[in-house]
Amino acid sequence: MPSEQEFAQLKSEVEALKKVLSDGSSLPPHFHKTDRIEFKDIIGGPRVVNAAPTFDGKEGREILYWDSVNSVARIYKYLGGAWRAFQRIEDADINDLSDVNITSVSDEDLITYDNATSKWVNIARSDVVSGNKINVSTSSVSITNTTTETSLYTVSVPANTLGSDNAIRAVIHVDTFDMKGSESLLLRIKYGGTTFGSASIANTSGSNMAGLTGTIEAMVLGNGATNSQKGTVKIHCEEDESGFSNANAHEYCFGSSPLGTASVDSTNSADLDITLKWNSASTLNKIICNAFVMYKID
Length: 298
Known about the structure:
Layout (H helix, E strand, L loop, with lengths): L3 H20 L24 E2 L12 E6 L4 E8 L2 E6 L12 E2 L8 E5 L4 E5 L9 E5 L3 E4 L5 E8 L9 E13 L4 E8 L2 E9 L6 E17 L2 E12 L12 E5 L3 E3 L7 E9 L7 E12 L1
Parallel strand pairs: 1-2, 5-7
Antiparallel strand pairs: 2-3, 3-4, 6-7, 8-19, 9-19, 10-18, 11-14, 11-19, 12-13, 12-18, 14-15, 15-16, 15-17
């Protein structure tokens, strides 16, 4: 049971409250007991409604609208004298956004901006040469005893890979290179059927070369426009270090083409082709390649 002092304190507080409720004399100057508070004047946390709001709201107020027909949740916020809808991205399909056009989705598709349609669209990962790899092959290719120009490595380069300022590089491992004395060969690089350049290699020693290994490298570069390119190809083969001594001459061959030009529309797919042609047909003229890599540089 409260003491007399506690009871007196409680009675005093009750009397003060009665006075506030009777005439409002102790309320703050900006608020009076006769003032009316409407629902729109209260800014609180979002509340859930089952119909899009049409009533007046307090600036800044939010409500949550659940569209049960389309199974979509939206946040409405009262801004500038009207309710504005904001779709909750976690409850929406990305294709519901006005600037997105997603069609025929496949595994590992990527999204990129299409300036022509002003929309974000999906494209296959291979179309952007993800990881920059265009092609890898370990097939064995042999060219011997023929004077026919023969393809060493042909790959279809996807559309828009080169663009105006990207590049493609191809590297080929030469596992065996034999060349008879007083022989020559022609190495060529082509893109979209256009020959960029040719590298001519000749064995002027008069002695047969055999068992050389090395690499063939080729480059195609975008030359400031999607229909302008430059390119070159080179070969470098030499005798395995374990196969010669100080008493023997070190055998090697090297050739490189000047930087050539082409005008191929790279917005379409086009073949990159590296060919080789022996000057004479002989079993002593042989090249075997067994590792091929082509990749994009951007």
